[in-house]
Amino acid sequence: TKVKGIADHGETAGKQPVLISKDNWVIDGHHRVEAAKLKNKWVRVVRIKLPGRKALNAVKKLDK
Question: Which of 31, 37, 32, 41 is CA-nearest to residue 13?
C-alpha cells in the first residue's frame, strides 16, 4: 500500500532522490523505486562512493 500511495502522488515522489551505493545497492528509497517502476518513471539518484554494505552501515550510523 505504501508503494501504491507513492505512485499515486508521483509528481512529488520523484523529488527526493534514491540513495544507492557504488555497486547499485538501494540504501534508501526502495518504495520510491518500486513506485517509479509502476508508473514507468525515472527517479533521481545520489550515488555514494562506497560498496553496498559499507554504505548501509554508514547511513545507519547517521540515524543514531
Answer: 32
